[in-house]
Amino acid sequence: MVKKFVFWGIIAVLLSAFAINANAQNKSEIIGTVLDSLNTPMQGATVMLMHPADDKLESFGLVGAKGQFRVTSESYGTFKLQITFVGYGTFAREVVVNNPNVDMGEIVLRTDAVLLEGVTVTDSFIPIKIKKDTVEYNANAFKTKPNATVEDLLKKLPGVEVDKEGNVTAQGEEVKKVLVDGKQFFEDDPKVATKNIPADVVDKVQVFDKKSDFSEFSGIDDGKQEKAINLEIKDGMNKGVFGNVKAGYGYEDFYEAGANLNRFTDKMQMTVLANTNNINERAFSIRDYLNFSGGLEDLMSGGNFDFSAVPRNLRENSGITDAVSAGLNFNFDFNEKTKFRSNYFFNKSDNITNINSSIQNNILGFNTDSDSDESSDFNNHRFRTKLTHQFDANQDIKIDLNLALTDSDSNEDSNSKTVVPVDILKNSSITDNRTLSDILNWTGQLSYRKKFKKKGRFLTTDLGYNDTNNSELRYLQNTLESYPSIDLTNIEIQDQLQDKNTYQDNYAVSVNYVEPVGEAKYLNFKVSRAGYTNERNKEFSDFNASDDIYVKDEILSNQFKSDYGQNTGGLAFKDIRKKFSYTVGLDYQYIDLKNKDLDTNESIDKTYNGLLPNADFKYELNKSASIELKYNTELSIPSIDRLQPVLDNSNRQNIYIGNPDLDREYLHQFRVNFRNFNQFYLRSLFFGITSQFKEDNIIESRVTDEKFTTTTTPVNLGNAWTNSAYYNFKTPFQNANLQISLRGNLSVNNSDLSVNSEIDQSTFTVYSQTIQLENKKKELIDVLAGFKMNSNFNNYKENSDQNQSYFTYNYYSDLVWYLSDTWTWDVSYEHQRYSAEQFGEETQINFLNSSITKTFLDNQISVYVKGMNLLDESLNISRTSFANTNSETIRNRIGRYVMLGARYKIRSFGK
Description:
Elements: H1 2-22, E1 28-35, E2 46-50, E3 57-62, E4 68-73, E5 77-84, E6 91-97, E7 101-108, E8 114-115, E9 128-131, E10 134-138, H2 150-156, E11 160-162, E12 168-170, E13 173-180, E14 183-184, H3 190-196, E15 202-211, H4 213-218, E16 225-233, E17 240-250, E18 254-264, E19 268-277, H5 286-293, H6 295-300, H7 312-315, E20 320-333, E21 338-361, E22 366-392, E23 395-420, E24 424-451, E25 458-485, E26 488-518, E27 521-544, E28 549-552, E29 558-576, E30 580-597, E31 602-620, E32 625-636, H8 640-643, E33 647-651, E34 654-657, E35 665-678, E36 683-695, E37 698-704, E38 710-716, E39 720-732, E40 739-755, E41 758-774, E42 781-796, E43 804-817, E44 823-834, E45 843-856, E46 861-868, E47 875-882, E48 885-892, E49 897-909
């Protein structure tokens, strides 16, 4: 009852916020038409309605195609109407709003500013400027609460959104980089800047499309760009120290503490971050782990990465975690030509998780249930530097050095059982594992770029090297009992020491030359050489009880070396027009792969080659809309794990063995992307379609024996199609304090399956749909409510009686209420519902969080009380489908806690 009351209570507040605004007695609409001296509509001019006393923004709009504009005020009174357009003076006029409709008539913009009725306009009080591809917001025009961060400021800006996880979207696109005074800030994660930099030190927020290094240097648009934000620090505040410290403590010894200190000068930016907590706030992400372990490169190259090796607490925010993190960002400009960028980050995470999982084999008809307790201790150090030097206006050099050191200690105690229909037990196992892992990875890259006298002619060269050492020591104890008949039991005991050591060095060199062949036409010649040497030593030893020692298992142990070389040459033609551009190219790739078993001296040598056509076409429909079509091809080479013909029994019931006869996959990929952002209505629409076709598709062939032990081997089997589509639509309602977001994703995968040597064709379909409503004006109340549905459909051609489907529903709502200038209250609620189908009964989970904050001493100090997981839900559920199996995993999570804490603001400028 309480759960329903909370959810519908927040919905009621949301609707009330809309209704109050929509029915406000003194709401008014100001309209007009903006022309130039030739009576041409000034489409794209910025129209702002501001309060004269402090220039805070009341409403914002853009001039439409016919020159019309429309802005609204929530109350009657005297306002300042301000209109700006690049190349023209600023128009400003005081407007007395005393009725529901005010018509300003025709307004003519001239090349000199128009100052009427005593209004003084200065550049610093223009809330929004639009300069070609850059939208610049004056932070002073957007009111934020005390102790607000940049994240809070961004939520106020028209066309910028921040979701529940802190991800930033601007003009409908995800923001990938955040700069501070033009310098990158902890380059990997924009949220480090948005969540830590105080809003009150920011002067301007600039949203723009950051072009690739290639485009910025050459002046040739290669079509590769990403949305970025630059934060300009206020004059006087870009010299000195600022930041904050915080600490909180709750019953049952829950705690959090953190500090954020910034030291800026004309030439230097230095930031120190530190945090420790035991409330499951992550100190690092799964992407970090993949980067450190080389898994991300395996995935990007089409290889096979073992996700079971990823610490459980990274895959889900589950278990009980103690986390410590610390970081240092240091940027220094020696002069205009030489600049240094660096950062260091340390993460430590200790996690304890209880896991219950159920895996259902759809075709063979058996279930495996397991219960395990896992603990892990994960430590990571990451250090990155970048030095750039510009010799002159036509040539520069860049040196990047990255170093990562990771060590982990994990333990797993589990028991599992496999049953067939009518609950007949076929086997059971008890496992006790401990794994020690150390990874050392360093990367260096040298880039040189040169422009020639002829416009459009230039040369770029890159040289890169990467070295990775990975050692893993695993103590594995397993007891497997199988029951072939009622009166017979087989017991197998495994006590094994697995010592794995991997060394890999990668190198890459490339030369890229561009020659102009006409007006805005270019030929691009490129050649590259890349390769790696990978040596893996697996020494598995079985415990000999009679001698009380571990004895090497010659069958499971192996030393394997792989030498990979890739030569690529290509030619591309690029034509850039005013409304469109296109590129067509053709590459030739030759790959030499030499695999050698160092124990037997047997070699497995393979060569692959192929022509790889590619094409790109981009058309700008208008200033706010564009469409892009891309086609590319790729050779995907099997990884060393897939090629190594050695049995891996790390999981006794799921054995893996590589296949040295694997062939490459040949991929064709076609993409269509459409983008439209209407700055007049702040309406955005994005959609895209991707189709991927694989020749000689690599699948995992599975054979399950009478003991229900599954052996997996990769094989090339037929072709595969993967088709996906997405859309994202957002629009405000013109006469209501409301905006709606609709997001959808669809993925359809068609491929063959091999189960116990029988071939079947499968179609896996996943569809998700999200609907979200929120209020536009967030000065007093910031509230949203949403619904998300995920659906999964698994269909088999030959075994259609095993077709499966299941659904997940998520209802969520968030409310932030600014009770006064010094009081803030927020509450969030989430309801998760998992459908029954083959998983048994329907499961429902509810989460409720709330906090209240009070500030003192001119916002220098704030005190907060927060309660998390107030309904004391203890479960975290995830469901996946893969090949012929469905799995459901239930993990524990941190329970209810209430915490009292305080923050202190540090400010010392001008030094």
